[in-house]
Write a structure and sequence with these properties.
Layout lengths: L24 H6 L5 E10 L2 E11 L4 E5 L6 H9 L5 E9 L2 E2 L5 H6 L2 E4 L6 E5 H18 L4 H4 L8 H14 L10 E2 L5 H15 L3 E5 L7 H14 L5 E6 L12 E6 L2 E6 L2 H20 L1
Parallel strand pairs: 3-10, 3-11, 6-9, 9-10
Antiparallel strand pairs: 1-2, 1-4, 4-5, 7-8, 11-12
Helix pairs in contact: 4-7, 7-8
């Protein structure tokens, strides 16, 4: 099923979708297409089918909440979007500015502006936050520059980042997330509390400036104070240049990050969609009550 996907791409070449104010020929060709579109996506792991026909469209400036019980396929969708190699897509497509991304490597997706904040971030002893972030930001920024050879002619503004600029930018984003300067010298996620790990993920998002941000259960394991800080960071970063997919079990997170759309996933499919009020309905009825309502309908 996957061998011919590269041949079916929309012909955007090496163009990298850009944030507000940075344009190129690729964006001008694709500006009328949905930013991100999942169509009839089926996927499995170790011969067990998890996703059974997922359809989802996200545009720039939109915040979408994806809710559902454990085992419904929410995190599987996030991992497939990011390019996790353990999952096999057996049918369907994922298009980013009209281009099928399923044959792209995870780093290629990241360089093009797709970001995943993990539910359980990896601990990397011996690598400081600052070193990790500098390598990630430099890789993404350099790819951006290489993808825009005619940036000056087309009004683009992508430039390679200097060490001095990176330090200034990191300090600015850390202040936004209320993080102490010493945080940058600590090893990546080693000894971090749940709240610190999630803030570290949001700091990565702030520095990488993605066009699509997928936040996989960012509220997991957070107390109310940490949740507020993380939510404030997401709200400060979200805007007309970025689409956000929030994956969560509970309505609690949506008290602080207001979605435009809410999607309910069960048994590998999105079974119900609506506005923010759908989350409150789910809070009232619970997943079992909603499942009974859908079965009756």
């Amino acid at each position: 099923m996957r061998s011919d996907r590269r041949a079916r791409r929309s012909g955007t070449g090496n163009g990298l979708p850009r944030n507000e104010g940075e344009t190129d020929g690729v964006m001008s060709e694709n500006q009328n297409l949905p930013m991100f579109e999942v169509e009839n996506l089926h996927a499995s792991i170790e011969d067990k089918e998890i996703l059974r026909g997922v359809n989802l469209t996200i545009n720039r400036g939109e915040v979408h909440a994806l809710m559902g019980p454990n085992g419904s396929g929410k995190s599987t969708l996030a991992y497939i979007v990011a390019g996790h190699p353990s999952y096999e897509v057996t049918e369907g497509s994922i298009r980013y500015f009209g281009e099928d991304i399923l044959e792209m490597s995870p780093d290629e997706r990241a360089r093009r502006g797709i970001f995943l904040a993990f539910q359980y971030p990896t601990v990397i002893p011996g690598v400081s936050m600052a070193s990790f972030l500098r390598m990630a930001v430099t890789s993404v920024r350099n790819a951006r520059v290489e993808a825009l050879p005619a940036a000056a002619e087309n009004g683009g503004s992508a430039q390679r980042i200097t060490p001095r600029e990176f330090r200034r930018l990191m300090k600015e984003k850390m202040a936004l997330l209320k993080m102490d300067d010493t945080f940058a010298t600590r090893y990546l996620n080693e000894g971090f509390s749940g709240g610190e790990k999630k803030r570290a993920e949001i700091l990565q998002m702030a520095l990488l400036e993605p066009t699509l941000a997928v936040l996989d259960e960012t509220d997991s394991g957070l107390d109310i104070d940490a949740l507020k800080v993380v939510a404030e960071g997401v709200n400060a970063l979200a805007g007309p240049g970025m689409g956000v997919l929030l994956i969560t079990h509970y309505q609690r997170l949506l008290n602080f990050i207001k979605p435009h759309f809410v999607h309910i996933m069960m048994d590998g499919r999105i079974v119900l969609e609506g506005g923010p009020e759908l989350a409150f309905e789910l809070e009232e009825k619970g997943y079992e009550g909603l499942k009974a309502q859908l079965a009756a309908a």
